[in-house]
Amino acid sequence: MSTDSNSKPKAAVAGRRDFLKAMTGASAAAAAVVVGADTAEAQATRTESREERVKARYQANSAHVQAFYRTNRY
Asked: Into how many domains does the chain fold?
């Protein structure tokens, strides 16, 4: 009575394992490419001078800031 209805051939199990190993390797390689890639923002900040990076960008009188304050009053 050692027959198991869920037993699978060893070749099928080995094939599935090989497939999963290949997918693990492929996903690791894809993650390495994504981590190594520079974003457009990162490339743009390298071209800015120090003065451009530290200048004030917030403008309280701009239209979108005024709209934010108008709609979010409590």
From this structure: 1
